[in-house]
Amino acid sequence: MLLLVVVLTIPVQSLAEELMFRGAIMPALASWVRPVAPALVFGVLASSPVFALSHFAFDPWQIAYYAFLGVCFAAMAVISRGLETSIALHIANNALTSILNVLFAGGGALVLDRSAVPGGPHLLVPVPFFLAALAFVWWRERRGPVAGAAAR
C-alpha cells in the first residue's frame, strides 16, 4: 500500500518543487541582476541553497547533495528553456529513491529523519548519473529541433 502511495504522490510533489524553485524562485532571484548571463548564474546559484535548505537536512553532505541537485535541475531548466526536463529528472530521482526506501523498509514504517541519518561519501553515487543527464540535455538541445517537431 505504501508503495502505491509513493508512486501516486511523488510526481505531484516533484512537480510542485520544480514549479516553485525553478519556475518561480529562480527567475525572481535572477530578476535582481540586470545583464542576462550574470542573472542566469545568480538565479541558479542563489536558488539552489534555498532548495537545499527547504529539505531540512542538517548534515553538510546532505545539504551539499541537495544543493548539487538544485544546480543540476536549474541548469536543465535553463539549457532546455523549460521545466519539462528538470521535472522529469526530479520525478525519476524521487521515485527511485522513495521506492528503494519503501522496499528496504522491510514492511515497517518509512521514517525519513534527515537530522539523525548521517550523510557521507555514499551521496556521491548518483552524481555521475545527474551529470550524464545534464550532458545529454545539453547535447540534445545543441542538435536543434527533433525532425517533424515543427509539424506538431
Write a compact overview of the structure shown.
This protein has 152 residues and is mainly α. It is 70% helix and 0% strand. The protein has one domain (2-107, 117-144).
Features:
transmembrane helix; CAAX prenyl protease 2/Lysostaphin resistance protein A-like domain-containing protein; 152 residues; mainly alpha; membrane; Rce1/LyrA-like_dom; transmembrane
List strands and helices in order, with pairings.
Elements: H1 2-30, H2 36-53, H3 60-80, H4 84-104, H5 127-143
Helix pairs in contact: 1-2, 1-3, 1-4, 2-3, 3-4, 3-5
Overview of the molecule:
It comes from Saccharopolyspora gregorii. The chain crosses the membrane at residues 32-51, 63-81, 87-111, 123-139. Pfam families: Rce1-like (PF02517). This is CAAX prenyl protease 2/Lysostaphin resistance protein A-like domain-containing protein. The chain has one domain. By secondary structure, the protein is an all-alpha fold. It contains five helices and no strands. The termini are far apart. It is globular.
Total DSSP helices: 5
Structural class: mainly alpha
Give the CA-CA distance, first to last residue.
40 Å
- Count of beta strands: 0
Q: Evaluate the radius of gyration.
A: 17 Å
Low-confidence stretches: none
Mean pLDDT, nearest integer?
86
Portion in helices = 55-70%
Name the overall outline. Answer: globular
Largest sheet: none
Number of domains: 1
From N to C, what is the helix and strand string?
Answer: HHHHH
Strand content: under 5%
Keywords: Membrane, Transmembrane, Transmembrane helix
Protein name: CAAX prenyl protease 2/Lysostaphin resistance protein A-like domain-containing protein
